[in-house]
Automatic annotation (TrEMBL):
Gene3D superfamilies from the UniProt entry: 3.90.1010.10
NCBIfam families in UniProt: SUF_scaf_2
Occurrences of domain NIF system FeS cluster assembly NifU N-terminal (ranges): 11-130
Similarity comment: family membership: Belongs to the NifU family.
Molecular functions (GO terms): iron ion binding; iron-sulfur cluster binding
Protein name, entry field: Nitrogen fixation NifU-like protein
Pfam families: NifU_N
Amino acid sequence: MSMQNNLDALYRQVIMDHYKNPRNRGEIMNDALTINMNNPSCGDKIQLHMKVDNGVVSDAKFTGEGCSISLSSASMMTEAVRGKSVEEALELSGIFSDMVQGEDYDDEKYELGDIEALQGVTKFPARIKCATLAWKAMEKGLDPENVD
């Protein structure tokens, strides 16, 4: 088996692990931002819950239904943005967007970890919307109008 095939298999395992054992699945009560997003082309639905304190994403959880790509991406995203400043979270979202669209991205500023497993989505343009759904919800929620 080639090195690329091994890497693809590992990435599939990471995606399936986040899909079958999602991190941060649930709701946040008490003054949390709640953002609902859906992908009408495939039926994926995400409800993102975030708590932002003093410009930092102190908590992030999600509920929803959809394919393995959208739900695993939501799991990875909630892990990645927790503890980041609003600016860092938005910057990370831009890096993620560049990565899944096959563009050059800065992978030196942030440790992407499991998120890199989704870079193969670039080979399947119809799945990019699935991968970015939770990230778009996060961007919408962190819009300055919504954050203290």
